[in-house]
Amino acid sequence: MPTIKLDDIKNEAPRPQRRPDWIKVSPPKGETYRNLKRLMRTKELHTVCEEAHCPNMGECWGAGTATFLIMGDICTRSCGFCDVKTGRPLPLDWEEPERVAQAVKSMNLRHVVITSVNRDERKDGGAPIFAQVITRIREVQPGCSIEVLIPDFKGSEEALKTVMDARPEILNHNVETVKRLFRKVQPQDHYEWAQATLTNAKRMEPDVLTKSGIMVGLGEEWDEILETMQDLVDWGVDILTIGQYLQPSNKHLPMERYYTMAEFAELKRLGLEMGFQWVESAPLVRSSYHADKQARALSPMWNKPD
Fold first, then answer.
1. Max CA-CA distance within the chain?
2. Domain ranges in the chain?
């Protein structure tokens, strides 16, 4: 694919007031979707698909897959892009790992993604719950690969090690945006915490794939995106996701502009050229998109020599 000039990209970019034709979100529907929603409610579980109003919920749930949101649906942080509630969370539910594992078994999943709200009121950030969920899924659903999308645990190596010792196939932590906008987008986070999480994860368990994601459309410059991507490569990140920021409501950070399909294709090309093993780059790409394919194609745990 030919290299795209930055001037061409800027001239081609549509204004944010009009949603381009290539961003179309189908409402969730179908019997599989309804059954999965019923299962979540009966087991008192949450999904980030619902809480974050993911645009791929119809596609993923219709196929019988979902990303589980553990440790409640109230976050201790207030990021400017996120539609998850902020406040004082309830105490941890130590029976939740069993309910999640049984739901995974009931759905007969081949791959599952586990994420959580931030639990900054706890020194361990809730890391033991992540570890217990991984362990219990391994016991009740052998052969199911596991991705965890974790908070930064404020850079705590001890909390991170608790998760890494359970050896998920993929350890995901999203950097979300470029360094210049980081504190604007995530006021209670630090770029250095993201760096510590991803570099330490790779150091602790080199065979566990590391993954991160970026949203575009928040006012970043093209060169800043590339600088952030290079940071992630330098931190040992294997998998990158890039998607369009879509403003959840007028209370959230405004979207500066829509990126074009050509831009997303160019970011994918550049990411693979930089050294990522896998890049998902498209307007509606979110953290968990095609996660099952990534695990089976890349994870050393799934591709051990005979």
1. 55
2. 7-14+25-298
Mean pLDDT of 73-81: 89
CA distances from 63 to 3, 27, 28 (A): 35, 14, 11
CA distance 286 to 213: 8
What's the rounded Cα separation, in Å, for the pair 130 and 22?
A: 36
- Residue 280 pairs in a beta bridge with 241
**Confidence check: pLDDT of 43 > 70:** no
Task: Give the 3-state secondary structure of residue 236.
Answer: coil
Q: Which CATH class is domain 7-14+25-298?
A: alpha beta
Identify the three-state secondary structure at position 252: coil
Which ranges in 141-286 belong to alpha helices (H)? 157-164, 182-185, 191-204, 222-234, 261-274
**Cα–Cα distance, 67 to 116 (Å, whole number):** 10
Half-sphere exposure of 63 (CA within 13 A, CB side): 14
Question: Quick check: 291 and 166 in contact, CB under 8 A?
Answer: no
CA angle 47, 71, 123 (to 5 degrees): 145
What does pTM read for this prediction? 0.85
How far is residue 180's CA from residue 231's CA, in Å, rounded to a whole number? 13
Grouping H, G, I as helix, E, B as strand and the rest as coil, residue 23 is coil
Span 139-181, pLDDT tens digits? 999 989 999 999 999 999 999 999 999 999 999 999 999 999 9
Report which of residues 198 and 305 the model is more confident about: 198
Q: Please say whether the beta carbons of 256 and 225 come within 8 A.
A: no
Encode 237-261: b = buried (16+ Cβ within 10 Å), e = exposed: bbbbbbbbbbbeeeeebebebbbbe
User: pLDDT tens-digit profile of 2-25?
Assistant: 444 444 444 444 445 577 776 776
Q: What is the mean pLDDT of residues 211-227?
A: 97
Closest CA to 263 of 249, 236, 239, 281: 281
